[in-house]
Amino acid sequence: MTPAPLLFSILAPLEHAVTWILDRFHYNLGLPWGWAIVGTTIAVRIALVPLTIRQIHSMQSLQRHAPEMKELQRKYKGDKQKLNEEMMKFYKENHINPAASCLPLVAQFPVFISLYLVLKHFSKHVPPGSNLSWLHFVPNITAKADSHWSGFVLLAVYAVSQASSTYFMSATMDKTQRRLMMVLPLLFITFIGRFKVGLVLYWVTTNLWTVGQGLVTRRLVPRTAPGVPAPAGAKRSSRTPPATPEPTNGSPAEPAAAAKRQPVSTTPRRVKRKKGGARR
User: How far apart are CA 196 and CA 119, in angstroms?
Assistant: First the structure.
């Protein structure tokens, strides 16, 4: 058996689930098929909220410990094996899961493939003559995006939404990686244009959800600056620098601190006088 049919057979239950959700939005709520795809996308993103919360916490943790990780990279620059070992120890000591930032994207991939299969056989699922348009300017959500001018408009919206979502969800990347991730959508437009309009609509909706999620997160969750110590009560690792530097032996700070700790005498000084009455 070839890998592709095997993959499709594994995703068959999920394909049936996506079809069932689309039917509920269309037949029970009366939404057109295009809006049913939008509703299905929103339902998927709501189901992924727990993973999204873990993603946000992971990104904040990576941002907070960025200086320490850069120091490890500098220290073991010439030994990749040692660097990987030290980074794994650092992640374990600070309870960091780097893969958590990718969980929502990985979880969406099977849904994307399942929707692709649904749209591929959509003509067999819907009755003949069904309305497959969207917003009165996309004539057919099962057609390829590059087959009509409306598809190019949707692809432009996709590129803008993808770049915007990358901007909000790549806070831990350096500037070069961030710019690359924002330019990649422009390079993928030719490839994505071969997909059906319904898939592009799904991806635009999930990107806009990510942008809204980023705006809400920035307003409700305080941004953690790099190098800021963890909250009180948090476990400190052996690689976490102290919050305030302690003076070493023989440093100029020690005599000054000792002088501050010496009690100040408030007893008035006694003046000795000579026999002749003059002061000494």
Answer: 8
In this structure, is the dihedral angle defined by the CA atoms of residues 209, 185, 167 and 110, taken in order, positive or negative?
positive
Tell me if 142 sits within 8 A of 123, measured CB to CB: yes
**SS3 label, residue 144:** strand
- CB neighbour list of residue 143: distance below 8 Å, 6 or more residues apart: 151, 196, 197
**pTM, full prediction:** 0.70
Per-residue model confidence (pLDDT) at position 67: 87
At residue 3, the pLDDT reads 47
273 - beta bridge partners?
279
Distance CA 101, CA 21 (A): 27
DSSP designation for 279:
B
With a cut of 70, say whether residue 114 has pLDDT above it: yes
Mind listing the pLDDT tens digit for each residue in 241-275? 444 444 444 444 444 444 445 555 555 555 555 55
d(CA 43, CA 61): 28
Q: Read out DSSP for 147-215?
A: GSHHHHHHHHHHHHHHHHHHHHH-TTS-HHHHHHHHHHHHHHHHHHTTSBHHHHHHHHHHHHHHHHHHH
196, HSE (Cβ side, Cα atoms, 13 Å): 23
Q: How big is the chain by its Cα radius of gyration, in Å?
A: 31
